Amino acid sequence: RTAALTVDPAFRIAPADRRLFGSFVEHMGRCVYGGVYEPGHPAADELGLRADVLELTRELGVSTVRYPGGNFVSGYRWEDGVGPVGDRPRRLDLAWKTIETNAFGLNEFMIWARTAGVEPMMAVNLGTRGVQEACDLLEYANHPGGTRLSDLRRKHGVEDPYGIRLWCLGNELDGPWQVGHKTAAEYGRLAAETARAMKLIDPEVSLVACGSSNRGMPTFASWEATVLEHTYEHVDYISAHTYYDPSDGDVDSILASAVDMDLFIDQVVATADHVGARLRQTRKLKISFDEWNVWYQARLQADLDRRGWVEAPALIEDDFTAVDAVVVGDLLITLLKHADRVGVACQAQLANVIAPIRTRNGGPAWRQSIFHPFALTARYARGTVLRTEPAGPEYDTKRHGSAPAISSTAVYDEETGELAVFAVNRGADELALDLDLRSLPAAAGSEHHTIAAGADPGAINTPDEPNRVVPRELDRPAVDGGRCTVRLPGRSWNLLRFT
Ligand code: AHR
């Protein structure tokens, strides 16, 4: 079986924005407590930040981290998490049936973000709260001083304002599970008023209005249309969230998940542009794909029902397989392919909770299978994303119908002349991929890294066997007269580098 792909630097989509390699730290399960923060852990600093997790975060290449939720933010009082730790209240977190100690809050997160070298993306509570509390948080975080809340920040030891640029106007308020769930019109009005007030405090902020929690929501598209009718002129992004569930064991379908993500992006763009046209707007909005991943969803509700109120329970600590790594690589390809309209993307979440990084309390931290395609994409997708139109066979899936066996994108760095081609073979059979690189005369193959799920699709990484699913290097691609053929193993994610 063969497929063909032409790479031409003339076919530019957009720069590969670093913000596409975002992640997400929510007060959920052991993402914060026992994940990024664990006082007393041998690797923790005096504040309780785990150095091993920080090191893996840097290795992962994460650019932007969304915080503090998620469903959690819809009941959160940000002021509970600042000031002397001993004075902070213990609260019920209704989203995850958890006791929140508030030992970790905004200022701890900002120290963590600075140490990790990531840009913060903050969410305000528009579930149980409104305009005033969002303004209060922004004043505390970004106003230089001389007011009650900015001076409170200074009293808390943070002299300079944080200057946080990216803000989410709530989370998944289209979802009936959300504390403070709203209709599109209710949310649209609230988001617009909050946005207007926040921009009065700090005109430099970029704001994200909540889109749908996934493409299957009954209100999908009409939600975006109504919300944007209210908010279009005040916001910069509309969000999208999606999780793909492999629980039914249908490997062919889960491997084609990116077909759905691709359609989701196209449909949100179409909806946003339609509203923009009706409102006579010339500025185009971008998508903030601020939650995406693979997630074995079946287990969550039973877990919540089974137990009482506890601190930092282990929640949705999915073990990701080799197949899941291929899917994650393909979702990243899809985000890059839409780099002209997707401006931010956050894999959910960073540590323990459906995460590339796992930890044990008091114990080791390790890389899950999905860590690797993320890290290599973040490292090598530098420069301009180029349009590639792969031609190849299709294969049948139950969930997505007939799907292309190959998906791909290419990122070209004009300054260094380096080209990275990312390609997934979703089919079970090996594919011979013919690459036409004649528009890049100097291209010479340098590396072919692959994660192939064919031989051991269910393989996972554990602390005892941390390297069962890692990228393997295959033969160096041989370029002859600008042409090159590489073998993509069945069910594999691939990075081909040309210098
Ligand atoms: O990432 C886990 C949860 O999934 C988030 O809290 C929520 O926004 C989504 O439903």
TrEMBL record:
Catalytic activity: Hydrolysis of terminal non-reducing alpha-L-arabinofuranoside residues in alpha-L-arabinosides
Keywords: Carbohydrate metabolism, Glycosidase, Hydrolase
Bilayer-spanning residue ranges: none
Alpha-L-arabinofuranosidase C-terminal domain span: 290-492
Similarity comment: family membership: Belongs to the glycosyl hydrolase 51 family.
Complex formation: Homohexamer; trimer of dimers.
Record InterPro entries: Alpha-L-AF_C, ASD1_cat, GH, Glyco_hydro_b
Organism: Plantactinospora siamensis
SMART domains: Alpha-L-AF_C
Protein name: non-reducing end alpha-L-arabinofuranosidase
EC numbers for this chain: 3.2.1.55
Superkingdom assignment: Bacteria
